[in-house]
Design brief:
With about 325 residues, the chain is of the alpha+beta class. It is about 50% helix and about 10% strand. It has 15 helices and 7 strands. It is globular, with a radius of gyration of 22 Å. It starts with a helix and ends with a helix.
Length: about 325
């Protein structure tokens, strides 16, 4: 008899019954191929040939249903990414790619340690880029995950266009369970919009080329509004005998609170904050006292990479541990 644990693992790693090899027989898949042809001029036969090789995986649906950003509090999330081995690997990556990071910092205005930290959080500096076929991930989520089917069908379109543009076999690229790819875990739309050929060899390659990956991550942040030489955020503390303004914390990622409102909410900063700065207010749970934080525009820009305050704080914390050039 197969142990229950092993049986579950087998289920999550194999195609769902009835779907392997039959995806193109579905009307919604046929309609998708027709839409791609109409909107992008990609031959329907090419789309269907690719999707005929896709496998719908139960494990992908399981993973997308429980992202760690929604299940962990800050100190648990921090302990995943802020560890000695990742910090040391980050220092090594920064020094090994010093010239490229300096050039990206000068060109895009994004600090080298922030670019490095994002690559560190995303893939541990290229060590963990994902083992799912991107085709399987996107096809599974596009046609078997109704909650976000519209988003993943768009990404599947971009993936097929990317493969056609770069001469890739759609079954070859590997990535995360959500279809993110390369050192910086770009979704296909981000790859097509923000990946850059930073070493000027004629191709933007974020899977095998750390030079292109560095330039692409920095370009992504710059294009989303990174403000050069501006503070990312401010640690706050409560006024004496003041309760936390729970109704004002963790409301939104986008900074909309004025500095004048901080005192009204019973929050103070030991740093001087430009009165014109807009802030987003957060509470991060730790094993002891909570951490209160005011995120400025650059903190918000980091959340454009992953829409999570935990993610942005992990990037910032790792960048500080790694240090700059």
């Amino acid at each position: 008899m197969i142990p229950i644990k092993n049986l579950l693992l087998l289920l999550l790693c194999t195609p769902l019954v009835g779907f392997a090899g039959s995806l193109t027989e579905r009307q919604d898949v046929q309609d998708f191929a027709e839409l791609v042809k109409r909107q992008h001029g990609l031959e329907k036969a090419y789309v269907l040939q690719a999707l005929a090789q896709a496998e719908v995986k139960a494990g992908i649906l399981e993973s997308i249903s429980r992202p760690v950003e929604r299940t962990l509090v800050w100190h648990q999330y921090r302990d995943i990414f802020i560890q000695a081995d990742r910090i040391n690997a980050g220092k090594h990556f920064l020094q090994s790619n010093r010239a490229t990071l300096l050039r990206s910092q000068q060109k895009f205005g994004v600090p080298a340690e922030i670019t490095t930290a994002i690559i560190g959080v995303e893939t541990k500096f290229g060590a963990v880029m994902g083992k799912h076929r991107v085709l399987d991930a996107l096809a599974t989520l596009a046609f078997e995950y109704p909650k976000r089917a519209r988003f993943f069908r768009k990404e599947l379109q971009h993936f097929l266009l990317l493969c056609k543009e770069q001469g890739l076999n759609p079954v070859d690229p590997l990535g995360s369970y959500a279809g993110a790819m390369g050192y910086g875990q770009f979704m296909p739309s981000s790859y097509r919009h923000y990946a850059v050929d930073f070493d000027e060899d004629g191709q933007a390659d974020i899977w095998n080329n750390p030079v292109d990956a560095i330039g692409s991550v920095a370009n992504y942040l710059a294009r989303h509004g990174w403000q050069e030489n501006r503070t990312i955020g401010y640690e706050l503390h409560l006024k004496e005998d003041q309760d936390a303004p729970s109704g004002q914390l963790n409301k939104a990622l986008k900074p909309t609170v004025s500095t004048a409102d901080l005192s009204t909410f019973g929050l103070l900063s030991r740093q001087t904050i430009d009165p014109a700065t807009k802030l987003a207010l957060f509470e991060f749970k730790t094993a002891s006292e909570p951490l209160y934080w005011a995120g400025a525009k650059n903190f918000y820009v980091i959340t454009r990479y992953n829409h999570s305050r935990l993610y942005a704080m992990a990037v910032l914390t790792l960048s500080e541990a790694i240090g700059g050039l």
